[in-house]
Amino acid sequence: MKTTLSAALALTAASVLSTAGAQPRISAQSIIVNPVTPDLSVNVQVDRDASGAQNPAYRVGDGITVSATVNRDAYVYLFNVDPSGVVDQILPNRLGGDNFVRAGATKSFPAPGDNFRYTIAGPTGQNKVLALASLTPLNLGELSSFKTQQDQFATVNAKTQAGLAQALSIVVMPLPQNSWVSDTAFYTVAAVNPVTTGSLFIGTNVVGATVTLGGQRLGSANVTYSNLRAGTFPVRVQARGYRDHVGSVTIRPGSVTTVNIDLTQQITAPVPQPRPVPVPPVTPVGSATPVLDFIGSLLGAVAGTQMQDPARSAYDQKVADLQRQGYALQQSVTTPSGFQGVLVKGASSVTVTVERGAGRTVRVNVSETTTYQY
Fold first, then answer.
1. How many domains does the chain have?
2. Which of 48, 197, 280, 323 has the highest local Cβ count within 10 Å?
3. Rounded to an integer, what distance in angstroms lies between the CA atom of residue 180 and that of residue 175?
4. Reduced 3-state DSSP string for 295-323
5. What is the pTM of this model?
6. What is the pLDDT of residues 66-86, one digit of tens each?
7. Rounded Cα–Cα distance for residues 311 and 359 (Å)
């Protein structure tokens, strides 16, 4: 359970009550002071100042514990006054047990083992806690009350520090002067510094992609980068073999900006190739024949040149067939036994191999490879 301390205790300009005789008076240091020095003492402190004499700082959302120590068996009452004058009764309450404290013991709110904690909620500024100890129980009926059975804390009727002092003076007036005593502790609620940085996560479909933000290289993609200055910056995502992604991203303070980018493969433009010369299909034959020699001599005589290499003709024809299907020739090499070429269309690549075999045969081999992304 979390209980919000709606304010801290403010040190306001104190005024002096017109009192007679032994009536308590207000002071700038302790709200209400016993005019005599009783042998009863109480010390109140917050957890960041064990001495109770300092002025530690808390921020909104911080936890806080208020403690009181007495030298004699006594009933301890704790009050909280914030800078705007709102008064909270911390002890007694319906969460932290009764307010009777043994001599030499310390009463903490919350105590170790309690199933709740107290947190600071503002407003910011100088704050004050008042502890009032009495040898006998005090009747706070005119000062505070539990409005319903569900209320965990009593509602204080006094709305300012001066009002609290005046109400308490009426409560202790009938008591012997040496039977009660008070003490105060100070602390400050500081403003929360505004968050000026944020985080960035850029996810990509390519392992090893890099991210450059605002001209500065962050590192690999698919990683969250923190403590980045808030604002809008140009961003570039790069990976070898893929087209760069260029855009902008806005980093918001106190949050993680997530951007998912699918990089596309970079297709190399095909190198222009000479238009292949159409030739009749090459039919492998098992051995040399006079008919093949005659046809070769005849074609050579008609063209005025030697007959084209059958392996080259078969290679050119197969490449031309694939180009008509949309493939682009990326590589073409001459091998000791023939020719080899690589053609690409999208994610598919085809390798054409033509080799001269024994007995004036030509072997044509076509293999296809397709890359799928998942």
1. 3
2. 323
3. 8
4. HHHHHHHHHCCCCCCHHHHHHHHHHHHHH
5. 0.49
6. 999 999 999 999 988 888 888
7. 13
